[in-house]
Amino acid sequence: MGTAPPPFGGSGAETPGRQSMAFYIAALAHALVPAVLIIVLWTATLPAPDKPRRSGLARGVCAGALVGALAILLAIARTAETAGNTGLQVAGFVTNAATLMLLALNVRSLRLVEETGTPILARFTPILAAVEIAQGLFAAWNATVNHGLSATDVVNTDLIVNCTAILFGAALLAILALQLAKVARMAGRGPAATALAVVLVLALAVGSGQTMLGLLRLDQIGVTAERITYVARLSVIEPWQVYIDLGLTLLLILVAFRRRFRIGVTEDRIERRLRIARALTQSRWRRGLAGATALLLAILAFQDLYASRPPTLSEAIGMQADGKDEIRIPIERVKDGNLHRFAYISSAGHRVRFFLINRYDEAHIDIGVVFDACMVCGDGGYIQHGDEVICVPCNVRMFRPSIGKSGGCNPIPLPHTVEDGTIVIAASSLEKGARHFTEVVDVEVTDPVTGQKLTSGKAPFQHEAGGRTYFFGDKDSYDKFRADPDAYLRGGKQREHG
What we know:
Elements: H1 21-45, H2 54-78, H3 81-107, H4 120-144, H5 157-187, H6 189-217, H7 225-258, H8 269-307, E1 317-319, E2 326-330, E3 340-345, E4 351-358, E5 367-371, E6 382-385, E7 388-391, E8 397-399, E9 417-419, E10 422-426, H9 427-432, E11 444-446, E12 453-455, E13 461-465, E14 468-472, H10 475-483, H11 486-489
Parallel strand pairs: 1-3
Antiparallel strand pairs: 2-10, 3-4, 4-5, 6-7, 7-8, 9-10, 11-12, 13-14
Helix pairs in contact: 1-4, 1-5, 1-6, 1-7, 1-8, 2-3, 2-4, 3-4, 3-6, 5-7, 5-8, 6-7, 7-8
C-alpha cells in the first residue's frame, strides 16, 4: 500500500505572508529617508544669509504632502499608478539635478541673489522640500498599495497595528530629520556637502532608472536591449539606497564627534557650566541620531532579510503507486484539519505535489483532495493559517470548506474515490496533472523496447502514450515504439522509477 509512516503528509501550519509592522515602517524608510537627507543636508550646507526661514521650509513640506496626497488620489481614481509615479520621478530627477548644480556653486561660495535682494537658494529650498516629500509619499503609497491595512472593512487588530506602524515610522523619520539637522551643523558645511553630493548622485541614478522604466511601461519610448539592461542594473542599486544613506548619517555622527565642543579649562564657574551644558547637548543630539539611525537599520534589516522572505511550504511526503497503479491514503491519518502535503514523481520526472485537508472538523469529515497548484498562479503552492488556506504567489486566502471546488485561485481538484475509509487516487490522474508543475527530477527509467536502464534527464528520446511518458536509448527503439506501442506494453508496466 502506498502509505507513509507518521508524521503523515506534513502539517501545513506555515507562517503566511501577512504584513507586519516592520513592513510599513520599512516602506516609509525606503521612500522617505533619501528625501529627509536631501532636505536636511541641503539646509545645513547653506551659508547663514541663504538659509530659508523655518516657516518657508514648513510650507514646502506641507505643499509636498498635499501634492503627494493629490497624486495618490488621482492615481486611485484613474488607476494611473505608473503615470503618477513616472511624473513625480521626472520632477524629482530634475530637482535633484538642479540641487546638485546649485550645491557646486554654493561650495564655491558663489551667491545667487534676485533683483530684490532675496537669495535664490532660500527661494529654492521650499521647492526642493515640496518635490522630495511629494515623491517620497507617492513612492511609499506605491510600495504598499497592494497590501491592505486590514483584510476586512471593520476596525480590527490588524488595522490598529498597521496604522500604529505608519505613525511610528513617520515619527521616527521626523526625529531623524530634527537630530540630523543639529548633527550636520556640528560636522560642518564641508562634510555635510560631501554627504549631500553622494545622496544626490545616488538618488539621480535610481531616479533615472525608475523614470526610464515608467516611460517604457507607458510606451513613451521604445523598448531596446540597452534600455532594459540600464534599468535592470540600476534596479540592483535601489534596495541598497536607504542603507547607504543611513551609513552616511553614521559617518556624519563620527565627524561631529571628532569636531565636538571641548570644555577646556576655565576658572569662571558660570562659563564652565555653560560649556558643560553645550557639550552635553551636543552629545545628546549625536546619541539620539545614532539611536534613531540604528533603530531604522534594524527594522530595515529585519524586514528585508527575514520578514519579506516568501513563506516556505511544509515537507511533501513522497508517495508511490501500488500494484494497482493507485495511491491509498487512510482518512484517519488526514482528518485533523491540517494541510497534509504529498508528492508523486511522474513518468516524465515531474514532481507532482498534492494535498489533503479535512474541510470541516473530525465530527464532520469531508476530505478535500487537490493539486498543490492553481490555474492562475501555477505551482507556487499553498500554506495553511488557522482555518484559511493561502495561495503563496498572490496571498489570496480561502476558507477550508472551499477547498476542492474549482475556479479562481482555488487549488485544482484532484479526481479520487473513497473506499472503506481510504482516499484512492489513480496514478493516471497524477500523471495528467504533471503539466501543472515545473519541478523535474531525474529518475531511473527503462527503455520499453530494449530494456536498457536510463536516466530520464539524459535519455535522448521520449514519447507519451496512454497518459505516460516513455524514454528511449536510441532513435531505433524510439521509432519501433511509435510504430506499435501496444506491442511493447502488453507485458505490463514498463517504467520504473526510484
